[in-house]
Write a structure and sequence with these properties.
- With about 120 residues, the chain is mostly helical.
- The protein is built from four helices and two strands; from the N terminus they run αααββα.
- The chain has helices at about 5-20, 30-40, 50-65, 95-110, and strands at about 70-75, 80-85.
- Strands 1-2 form a two-stranded antiparallel sheet.
- β1 and β2 form a beta hairpin.
- It starts with a helix and ends with a helix.
Length: about 120
């Protein structure tokens, strides 16, 4: 998929999520947070700032696992998943990183038939 195609689909996904939650257009961080909550599997609840950061990390690991960079090790006693880096992630420019994360998020939402 080209950058233009990714960005076009991204805008559609943002609009859908905005409508689902009756909120402003979500950015990458919000989308990562949503994936993290989904992957945690404990439903919506209040999270501390630290937990929100951890949820975004969980999402990032989950997304990059589809490319073989992370592997799920298991969950801790509280049910939080833990991932290990199995292959180093190449040094991407900020623009490349953003495009890759958008593409992975689109794949994730399509995989779960959310999008």
């Amino acid at each position: 998929m080209t950058a233009a195609e990714i960005n076009k689909k991204w805008k559609v996904l943002q609009q859908k999520v905005s409508e689902w939650f009756d909120t402003e257009t979500p950015d990458l961080k919000v989308m990562l947070f949503l994936v993290g909550v989904q992957e945690l599997g404990q439903g919506p609840k209040k999270f501390s700032k630290r937990e929100k950061e951890e949820l975004m990390h969980i999402a990032t690991c989950r997304l990059f696992s589809s490319l073989g960079f992370y592997e799920l090790e298991g969950a801790d006693e509280d049910g939080w998943p833990h991932w290990k880096l199995v292959n180093p992630i190449p040094n991407y420019t900020l623009l490349e990183q953003e495009l890759m994360i958008k593409s992975l998020l689109l794949d994730y939402f399509e995989e779960y038939e959310i999008y």
